[in-house]
Amino acid sequence: MENFARLLKESWALVEGDRERLSDYFYARLFLLDPDLRKLFPVQMRGQGDRILDAIVAATQAIDDPESFDEYLRALGRDHRKYHVTAGSYATMGIALLDALRTAGGDGWNLEYDQAWRDAYAAISEKMQAGAEADENPPFWHAEVLTHQRYGPDTAVLTVQALQHPLPYRAGQYVSIEVPRYHPRVWRTYSVANAPNDDNILEFHIRTPGAGWVSGALVRRVRPGDLLRIAAPMGGMTLDRASDRDILCVAGGVGLAPIKALVEELITYNRTRWVHVFYGARQADDLYALTGLRELVAVHPWLSVTPACSADPDFDGEQGDISDVVTRYGPWTAHDCFVSGSAAMVRAALRALAADQVPPQHVRYDTFGSL
């Protein structure tokens, strides 16, 4: 297994610098092999390739952790039911993937790499299909937007209600969302910002600093009454109820969403664990959920919230990057740690926790972007 994982990582290092070419060749080959697959993808393919390649890389990097590998791929298979993929689709994708890897690898590609990816993809597709086949839920849920609250030009908090069927998820997980009215067949992932409830209502925190299609629509165009589609939940940033360790939560921007959901779950049962939430942003106006967090602190004595701003000298609170602020309050070696935010923020927080000698198995994280 060690040699197998090494071959996958070596071969990926050979091709990852030419991701655009790899993606273009993969899709060209895929649609040539089966033109009917084209209708499963959005009209504009820009950006689609990186997401599929990210999923493949995440799967191959987890292959030397069998438990994580199995759980991740079964969840990915359930998620891919939204595309209506078949066993034949998986086979065709495998052929296109190997052809694309060989082309991008050029003279550096060898038979050992080829066989490692064949074996890896066979394991990946088998476990994804097993997860899909075992899922008794619908391929996706229709959901109606109930409320939509803007916070400045780029951020919105919205609540939606899943219709017809309950949507089972755990606090800390994420789902993918499609806005069929504006961008059919384009899906983006967002963390659910509230704990599960009997009313089947889900809350989402969305930020669109750029021109992201789905995020832009959710922030600027979607209104109460609009219908969305939501796919199966994924992610393992969830609470271990058997643990008696205190909890550290580090959130940057809309990375607060899964942290808020975890706090809401803790409210239903926690009596003994101290929970410390560090909530960072650049400007005070970006701390859009601070008032609600402080209301929770007033009611639950085991909860504390420490806000910080990295680029607002007038902010009456902690100054600096949230990872640096967390370090000032340590040590955190005896805590269960949860980190969520941008890729840069998560990297910095993970480095800080590692320097604090927090055991890796006590750290769970979610990132909005690639690590």
Automatic annotation (TrEMBL):
Residues 1-133 form the Globin domain. Pfam families: FAD_binding_6, Globin, NAD_binding_1. InterPro entries: Cbr1-like_FAD-bd_dom (IPR008333), FAD-bd_FR_type (IPR017927), Flavoprot_Pyr_Nucl_cyt_Rdtase (IPR001709), FNR_nucleotide-bd (IPR039261), Globin (IPR000971), Globin-like_sf (IPR009050), Globin/Proto (IPR012292), MRET (IPR050415). Keywords: 2Fe-2S, Heme, Iron, Iron-sulfur, Metal-binding, NAD, NADP, Oxygen transport, Transport. It catalyses: 2 nitric oxide + NADPH + 2 O2 = 2 nitrate + NADP(+) + H(+); 2 nitric oxide + NADH + 2 O2 = 2 nitrate + NAD(+) + H(+). Its EC number is 1.14.12.17. In the C-terminal section; belongs to the flavoprotein pyridine nucleotide cytochrome reductase family. Belongs to the globin family. This is nitric oxide dioxygenase.
